[in-house]
Amino acid sequence: MPEPDVAPPQYLCASADLPERGKAVSFHVVQWREPVRAFALRFDGRAVAYLNRCAHVPTEMDWQDGEFLDRDRKYIMCSIHGAVYDPLSGQCVMGPCNRGRLTRIELTESEGQVYWHPTRDTKPAFED
Ligand code: FES
């Protein structure tokens, strides 16, 4: 059952906008009253989303807008110091992110549309 003060799922993009291991779709959220960019991509058929904030230093990670995957398109890689994350869990697997992980945003797909799910901490940009 959804929490009463949490916004309903928010439309993000069409499923076709997230090609397998392709460029990410960026979007804006508000976390703890601060605007933060987030991104969604598809990996092994699953659409996943995270805040665009490295676990090493809280900065944006893409080396070009929407480009988060490494050269082999196996991992999310931070462009700043090379931290490497598992795309499906957001867990750091190598580099200066230690045991950190990316902050996940829940996604669902329905009838060719992708939606992200706000929480008490991560809200749609228009709410604050
Ligand atoms: S800021 Fe991402 S690895 Fe350092």
From TrEMBL:
GO molecular function: 2 iron, 2 sulfur cluster binding; metal ion binding
Keywords: 2Fe-2S, Iron, Iron-sulfur, Metal-binding
Any Pfam family hit: Rieske
Domain Rieske: 10-116
Entries under InterPro entries matching the protein: Rieske_2Fe-2S, Rieske_2Fe-2S_sf
Hydrolase among keywords: no
Sequence intervals crossing the membrane: none
Domain of life: Bacteria
Protein name in UniProt: Rieske (2Fe-2S) protein
